[in-house]
Design goal:
Chains A, B: Belongs to the nucleotide-sugar transporter family. CMP-Sialate:CMP antiporter (TC 2.A.7.12) subfamily. Chains A, B: InterPro entries: EmrE-like, Nuc_sug_transpt. Chains A, B: It is a multi-pass membrane protein. Two copies of one chain form a homodimer. Chain A is mostly helical and 379 residues long. Chain A contains 13 helices and three strands, in the order βββααααααααααααα. Chain A has one domain. The first copy, chain A, is 70% helix and 2% strand. Chain A has a three-stranded antiparallel sheet, with no helix packed on it. In chain A, helix 1 packs antiparallel against helix 10 (279-301) and helix 8 (208-234) crosses helix 10.
């Protein structure tokens, strides 16, 4: 007989206090809330940083236009962004190395660099995939109109979740899968208003080649993000700026190879990568670079799904801000869409939706971080 | 120390097998699954019956038209439907009374009838509210276009949930509230396609009188349904067909008063309630009546929310059937809308979403039914 956590010994009939499930769960809850408050600060910093950078983007793009046109070749922007990211990461690495205590292994020593390069060779894979993705974006526009491309991009969130499940062994509850589906649906409902009249019916292309391109277009960037998360987390001991140097170094190399490829096919004028750039384009490239560096923080210290939600929230804030300050009307699609996105977000991160397990799914990455006794907030 | 459910007595050190939380929860799960399997059969019968009747509706409406027009006055349909329901309930009552065992109190005795009439006087309230609602539908069309009326009707599901919370003391988890919001959003997304071009922006009316009409239009039928559920359940011992005789008897009286009112204001020609009726309109009225009787089963043995979901599923099936058999194209709005509705439905009825309580929220009504030792399936 067990009553109020007190059991009676069936042999000597004395009372024994049992560790009731409730008292065990309370102790665990305390431990959990400690972790999740740190995770919440990290999440807040990452998401608000992302919102600021994504919010600045359209303003910078607008400033870069001369007579409504871009003077520079879009292909050069990718390469210059990668180079900027490498420089930024190296500057941060120098700042970090000055803060190092005496006796710590120097971040700038050749041996650290060589060992990190050897350990982080996996980062070449996401770098290659990102470079391929930049080219795919151009090809896709030959087969689909821009709104269809936007719609299809939404499918990425589900592909990312499936890849996270298999590559990162993340477990999602059924409510979380539904939340991800709702995120996809919410963004789509919001985008419906921008669909041209003719595409009102479900205008999916029917040619086989278009299906294959869609599959590649959705899978490649998703795989890049998830593999990036895997590569960054698997070498948790390597400083994140050092990892960035390799990731974006590889990226710069692959983009340069791409430019050389176009030079061979289209003639030498596409080699002039600095043509048409101004101070405005410099800021645009810096913003792009900062977004890239911030993503690596998302991937290493949080996860790809949080990055997706963050971008969506940033888009919503941009929409609300342009309604408040520029007097744009909020369409019913926008209102229905953001309601779905906010419900989705609440459900995905709700403790109710967490997979029932010793280690809650949401704090898995942080658990890893603590195992490696690393500081969580390097921002 | 407790290990594998075996505890050691701290006094005599003998081993005691503890009732582990898992074994207790297993026993409870068995008890729970017994209830919910009966509830599932009931739900299936109610929802599939509802789908058939709602699916037949547009076909019957089409058959009732002569040269694309209705020959009968729509106001007469409500009255004739109420009268049909009373007749149907009385026939069922006679069939039930024949099945009665010797010694049971006769369903058809005057004393049973008088006592039930006294106990179920509350049913006059939903009957009056339903009658008022039939008039409001006409008034609303003066202030809003039909698609706006349809959109506003969706708000009913949230009002119903709030009323259920306060009148029936039902408890909903946060996931269930979100599921209800998603149901509302899903139906709205589906309806967006049928919005005329001009109403693409959020075209809510701004006049104060329109707001008041909207409030009444949404609250009256919601209050009618929830109060109907309350009245039917509170007199659980009264046979449901006897309750129906009173509910629809009151309904017929209120509708007749309405007809008399229009006779006074518009002249005697609106009194000819049988004008323009044919065999097709007879079937339409029978279908309406059957839907009404079925609702009373929803309200008494399940609940108003299940009725709402059921109607939505019926609409979806009608849409899918018309796509499959009549070759209509499925719009992207329809596909997004039904995805939201199905996720909402799964979340609302998911055991994960249930309020943490000794008695799970979904089986509350069945618990009541068993307490009164009544047969569950009277269909």
């Amino acid at each position: 007989m067990q009553r109020n956590g007190v059991m009676e010994c069936s042999v000597c009939h004395s009372k024994v206090v049992a560790g009731t499930p409730r008292s065990i769960s309370r102790a665990y809850d305390k431990h959990k809330s400690k972790i999740s408050s740190k995770q919440r600060v990290l999440t807040f910093l990452l998401v608000s940083g992302d919102c600021v950078l994504v919010g600045l983007q359209p303003i910078l793009v607008f400033m870069c236009k001369v007579d409504g046109k871009f003077q520079f070749s879009p292909i050069s922007v990718n390469f210059l962004t990668e180079v900027t990211k490498v420089f930024f990461a190296m500057i941060m690495l120098m700042i970090e190395s000055r803060k190092q205590k005496v006796g710590e292994k120097s971040l700038l020593s050749v041996s650290t660099f060589v060992q990190a390069a050897r350990n982080n060779v996996l980062l070449a894979i996401p770098a290659l995939l990102y470079a391929i993705n930049n080219y795919l974006k151009f090809i896709m526009q030959l087969y689909f109109n821009p709104s269809t491309v936007k719609m299809l991009s939404n499918l990425k969130v589900l592909v990312i979740a499936v890849l996270l499940k298999f590559i990162m062994r993340r477990r999602f509850s059924i409510i979380q899968w539904e939340a991800l589906a709702l995120l996809l649906i919410g963004i789509s409902v919001n985008q419906l208003r921008s669909m041209p009249e003719g595409t009102k019916t479900f205008g999916l292309p029917v040619t086989a080649i278009a299906y294959i391109y869609t599959l590649i277009f959705v899978t490649v960037p998703s795989f890049a993000s998830v593999y990036n998360e895997y590569a960054l987390k698997s070498q948790f001991d390597t400083n994140i700026y050092l990892q960035n140097v390799f990731l974006y170094g590889y990226g710069a190399i692959f983009n340069l190879l791409g430019i050389l490829g176009t030079v061979i096919f289209q003639g030498p004028e596409s080699f002039d990568i600095l043509r048409g750039h101004s101070r405005a384009t410099f800021f645009l490239i810096c913003n792009n670079a900062a977004q890239g560096i911030l993503s690596s923080f998302f991937f290493k210290y949080a996860d790809t799904i949080l990055k997706k939600y963050s971008s969506t929230v940033a888009t919503i804030f941009t929409g609300l801000a342009s309604a408040a300050f520029l007097g744009h009307t909020l369409t019913i699609n926008f209102l229905l869409g953001i309601s779905i996105v906010f419900i989705s977000m609440h459900q995905f991160f709700s403790p109710l939706a967490k997979v029932k397990d010793d280690k809650p799914a949401g704090t898995l990455e942080l658990g890893d971080a603590q195992k490696h006794s690393h500081p969580i907030l390097l921002l």
